[in-house]
Specification:
This protein is 59% helix and 18% strand. It is built from 2 helices and 4 strands; from the N terminus they run E-E-E-E-H-H. It has a 4-stranded antiparallel beta sheet, covered by helices on one side. The longest helix is centred in the middle third of the chain and has 42 residues, at 55-96.
Length: 141
């Protein structure tokens, strides 16, 4: 039989509920004792009820937060790259298969979303270029 982990993280949109797993009881049943609630956005760890977390528990939870943030960041990039693929497929659809009625139904929404995206990307790119230039200018002094 595979050994169960000592902790289980029930993920939710903004973090997780943290449980300690116990199989060392009379009935050999899996018992899950909630020990904390984690907020992934601000890194807050709240002990459950009146419980005090041990340094080991805090370390395990902190490690999970770091790993979870990494996974979510990787997923964000993957989602964006999928959006690029989807935009390309949408372009091909509009070019080759869309009817006039279909184009009329989606064009305004697509054009506004793409305009908004282009504006944000252009502004962010300009900010990065200016920051890089400022850094170069500072280093030249």
């Amino acid at each position: 039989m595979t050994e169960l982990p000592e902790f289980y993280f029930r993920t939710r949109e903004n973090g997780a509920f943290v449980f300690r797993i116990d199989t060392e009881n009379r009935m050999r049943r899996i018992e899950m004792d909630q020990i904390a609630v984690v907020n992934i956005r601000n890194g807050e760890i709240k002990p459950h009820g009146s419980r005090e977390l041990s340094p080991e528990e805090i370390e395990v939870i902190t490690d999970w937060i770091v790993k979870r943030r990494r996974v979510l960041a990787e997923r964000d990039i993957d989602d964006i790259l999928r959006s690029v693929d989807h935009l390309n497929l949408t372009t091909q659809w509009a070019q080759s298969r869309a009817t006039d009625e279909q184009l009329e139904a989606v064009s305004d929404s697509l054009l506004l979303a793409m305009h908004d995206l282009r504006s944000v990307l252009t502004r962010k790119k300009a900010e990065r270029l200016m920051a890089a230039q400022d850094k170069t200018d500072t280093n030249d002094d």
